[in-house]
Design a protein that fits this description.
The chain has 15 helices and 5 strands. The chain has helices at residues 7-11, 34-37, 58-71, 74-93, 105-119, 134-153, 182-190, 197-212, 216-220, 253-267, 295-306, 312-324, 329-336, 341-352, 359-366; strands spanning 40-42, 51-53, 227-230, 233-238, 247-250. 24% of the residues are buried.
């Protein structure tokens, strides 16, 4: 039986899970023959909680090895491993397997219905209550589709990729994140009390987020070693961003000073010597004091000061503001690190569609006024 795990909770952890978590429980060997026991292994990725059963898991492990080799991310590995095992368990409860013979039309149709239902359902132990988002639904299908593509390429599966037949769901506007007006964002930043340690941290975090347009995970992973001075500017080296790629962002002078002041207050004049230290740390008056902040903690900082826990709002705001300042779509694309300029174009259109450049003209034509007489 596949062990269900809370991915959100696990992937937000900063340290590898203890090795004991992967050991077989004492009850398991009693249900396995001696030959079976020799075919059960720990996953090659230390942070992965799943056991590997050979030869049953052979194709899955080969596919994961290729995927993990490309991204270099253990989090990607765990997410993919958990996803494919979850679907396989669901299929097996209905008498199917992942790489099943689907030459019979009725069996093929049933298989697709099972996959669709699985992609749109939450695990029974999930702490989330809201329906599965379109993004999650599509990502699950994309993961399984990748597995089938690999199996076909390796000639381990002869049929068509059945996931290609399942329509993807229409995505919303980056899960509801919407850009703020630049003046409103300026006001909200100015309200942050920088007299406290937490206030200096929060102001520095949000300033860096707006200056770089970086995603929350990349910001959460920042360490002192990722910062280098070039004159009076700091450059941030992001060792792993979306897709497993690296990135570098140079901060302007004032943003560099804001970040350096915060770090100096935290780690002292020689803060750069603390190379392994986390940039964003907790000031809570509990056991978490001094610990590296998780993605969820950064989202709560965003909610406290910006009014939404959707950290992507900062990225939206930075991108839209650049365009309003005169940047071209290709320049915004480069800033946001979009691989396709069409993504940037759609991004900007969605961010601007609530605005009406003729709004003031309409007010004047219709005589709309707040004055009562």
């Amino acid at each position: 039986m596949t062990r269900h795990i809370d991915l959100d909770q696990m992937l937000s952890r900063e340290e590898p899970l203890p090795r004991q978590a992967y050991a077989l429980t004492p009850a398991q060997p009693q249900h396995l023959s001696p030959s079976d026991v020799r075919q059960v292994y720990h996953c090659a990725v230390p942070q992965c909680p799943h056991l590997v059963h050979l030869p049953a898991d052979g194709v899955i492990i080969a596919w994961l090895d290729e995927k993990t080799g490309k991204s270099g991310s253990w989090k990607t590995h765990v997410a993919y491993h958990s996803t494919v095992l979850s679907l396989r368990e669901t299929l097996q409860t209905h008498g199917y397997d992942l790489l099943d013979d689907l030459s019979d039309d009725a069996r093929y149709a049933s298989y697709l219905l099972i996959v669709q239902g699985w992609a749109g359902s939450r695990a029974t132990n999930s702490h989330h209550k809201a329906p599965v988002s379109a993004s999650t639904y599509n990502h699950r299908l994309a993961t399984i589709s990748s597995f089938f593509d690999y199996a076909k390429r390796m000639r381990l599966y002869r049929g068509d990729n059945p996931i290609d037949a399942i329509a993807r769901r229409k995505l919303g506007d980056q899960k509801g994140a919407k850009a703020l007006d630049m003046v409103e964002m300026r006001k909200r930043l100015a309200r942050i009390d920088r007299a406290s340690d937490a206030g200096r941290r929060d102001y520095a975090l949000l300033s860096v987020a707006l200056q770089t347009g970086s995603r929350v995970q990349a910001l959460a992973d920042m360490r002192v070693r990722d910062l280098t001075w070039s004159g009076d500017r700091l450059t941030i080296h992001f060792p792993r961003t979306k897709g497993g790629e690296t990135d570098e962002k140079e901060l302007e002078v004032e943003t560099s000073r804001v970040l350096a002041t915060y770090l100096q207050q935290r780690y002292g004049e020689r803060w750069q010597d603390q190379r392994d230290a986390a940039i964003w740390i907790s000031y809570a008056r509990n056991d978490s004091y001094g610990q590296k902040l998780s993605v969820q903690a950064l989202e709560q900082i965003c909610k406290k000061h910006i009014g939404t826990s959707m950290f992507h709002t900062l990225r939206h705001t930075a991108g839209l503001t650049l365009e309003e300042l005169g940047a071209t779509t290709s320049e915004v694309q480069s800033f946001l690190r979009h691989k396709n300029i069409a993504t940037t174009s759609t991004y900007l259109k969605r961010a601007k569609r609530a605005k009406n450049k003729y709004g003031r003209d309409l007010e004047q034509v219709f005589g709309i006024s707040a004055a009562t007489h």
